[in-house]
Amino acid sequence: MKTVYSRRDFIKASGLSGAALFLGISSASAKDVTVITAAQADSLGIELNNWISIDTTGLVTLINHRSEMGQGSFQSVPQIIAEELEVDITQVKVVFAQGSQAKYGSQITGGSSTIRGSYKQLLRLSATARELLVQAAANQWRVEKETCYAEKGMVIHRPSGKKLGYGALVSDASKLTPPTSVRLKDPSTYKILRQPLPRIDTPLKTNGQAIFGLDKKLPGMLYAMVERNPRFSGKVKSFNETEVKALPGVRHVLKVEMAVFATMRHGVAVVADSLWAAMQARKALKVEWDDTGFPHHSTEQLYTRMREDLKTKPLWFKAKGEVEKAWAKSSNVLEAVYETPYEAHACMEPLNCIADFRNGKLEIWGPIQGPDWVQKDVGEMMGLKPEDVTVNMTFLGGGFGRKAFLDYPHEAAVISKAIGAPVQVVWSREDDMTQGPFRPGMVYQCKGGLTEGGTIAGFEAIMAGQNMGHQNPGADKIAYNDSVTEGFPETYLDSIPHYRFGDVPLESPVPVMWWRSVYSSTNAFAYESFMDELAIAAGKDPLEFRKQHFWNGRFHALANRLAEVSGWHKRKPSEGYGIAITECFGSIVGEIAKVSRKPGGGIKIDKVWAVMDCGWYVNPDIIRAQVEGSIIMALGAAVKHATLFADGKAVQKNFDTYKMPRISETPDIEVHVMDNEEKAGGVGEPGLPPCTPALTNAIFDLTGKRIRVLPFSLDEIG
Amino acid sequence: MAAITLTLNGKSVTIEADPKMPLLWAIRELAGLTGTKYGCGIAQCGACTVHLNGAPVRSCSLPLAAVGNKPITTIEGLSANNSHPVQQAWIAEQVPQCGYCQSGQIMAAAALIARKPNPTDQDIDSAMSGHICRCGTYPRIRKAIKKAAALATANVNR
Predict the structure, then answer these.
(1) Per the CB 3.0–4.6 Å rule, which of A537, A634, A650, B149 could disulfide with A691?
(2) Which pTM value belongs to this model?
């Protein structure tokens, strides 16, 4: 897959002639965008954010500014373009953009933002191109533009039936001034959007041709493996440099440091001619560490501390009314504590990155979620200006938040600079799984009061755990965690007269970071479990109890659909059903799990129904795939795996101890997508948070056992 | 180091390698075929699965010394043009997300339907449980294996 930087590169890469129509966005701000042609950009002396071009054969080339890590941006973005541009999707070619914040705005593939962050711009851009082509044809035929229309890559004159392909019109169209406003299609007339079209990248991923970071090779490239401090903060005391350097194929053995938030991770790199040689030499490497001056936490210590912290004064984030009054007036006050584990991302492709730092310029190739961050921040760490840093994206073998972090490109750059040659740094599975950053472990204390009528009079939630933001250089460590409400449907807040949310931040050398759906992935377990406990205490049906607290029609529609598709109201007493509804990254997802007892003991998850309301959407099949995957990832963290710590080090090093969900443990999953034209929400992550509480609520429904600590074993439930 | 001749995707390939080197690294680093992936290095995830004499093996844990001249098939050798029924079914069911584990999944599925033309759910569970997919494509893998079996049978009967 080619990557491009400037329009000149783009022309070269795509073999375009100067006659092509180029259209781009003249501002990186989402609010103030103007669609302009290349000619206008040249006369204004500004760099065109060349998002799409149409060449003289009618081929549309699109610069994809987001990573493809499985979430389907490779398909979704062309589908948007093809719809408004009136071309067949096979006429749209995708080229990866290189990292450039100035040109593309944020390129971070995170917060499920690929579509929701850019769809309006893409629709406008494509509609503008279509209008220019129609105008060019009308001019050529000397007819009114209104008598012409676009279809399947052609402009057609309705009265005469005359036709011209886009390729024949691009030269004329490129000389026109784009209209300042264009009419976008009514979604009810969509022909390409909303269709479950197959993904363009699928064939590359079924015959081994897709190039991931680990598959990339440069001429003269060396290979590095790094022994990093297993306790995260320690320094290198000594290492057997002479011995390792004498091994076959070894070129360099050197101390390296990479930035991990405000700290430096110390390590020793073995650089060799081949990856095999580097792997072998690393086995012989012996590093003695200085691990003094910082705590060596164990899981027990971390959780004991979090439980203790809940008794201290939290940093209050959000409050309404006075919860103390609510407790006094409530007929029933409940309290419960929930615990969620630390987790590794465990992307199937272990971390890796190629860096070539020579002559004051840095070029990077790798599986990267945030190429613009690498360009700016890694560039800065290496003392370079953004224009001296080029970032090339490969396919990502999973990301889930981990590959948005900058440690591994930084380390590759440091090694390349030290040895003066291009180098690929490869992390072993063990490196990938033990070095973090991890999803932070959390302990939540929830308190709720019920009115006589069985509605929520007051709600309080306190979260103890590491605050991801507090790790950043210069972070204000007495700042509250404003993510404490993530996952909690905003609409609940309107219906609860008294509430407050707070957190007690924990300090530890263990680095923590976004993990698919971020804080929602753990918050939702606490809040939607507690919502269930309140419903049961109120003597209400858990689904109807939630509806009582929804003041928004979208939530009611979603809950009703979920009840309908799952047969919630027709369930038998012998069946365990549990529900959870969460809001995450602009989308609402409700899930119902159905469980039963296994003949030999333990619990079987029979089925999970999911209803996703992500507003305006592109491709229902990609949404279904993302929700299926989110559910399975959630189940892993609920019933299979966790990262534990002992003496300051991660215990689980590989898949023999970090047990992943397998095909044989996967329940039947049925996903439904709500049809509406609300603002587009995220798709890649919001399906994850409701799964775990839906499951544990279902287990309570079946067995009367309330699960408040994750992970748990399905086999151990009687 | 020794000169080792492998029968790789029907071709004879001679490499200079340590006989202790696992087949995976010979395929990727020495033969230059990158469709077969490194996932764990300890035969726990299945990303490195290739066929040895038609049977699925974990190439990350199989030393070259144990390979001999037995024929090896990698994802590239299954078919480059996606014409194998498993590849066709994978595309039809839109299985891959990130795609990293899929070469291994496909190789395991191809070996399964070669051995069991009509695999049951239990057959699928036992053949595929050694394969991890972090994206969670399992429901589609199950559907695709059933579709591939039907396609393969239809091809035979044609």
Answers:
(1) A634
(2) 0.94
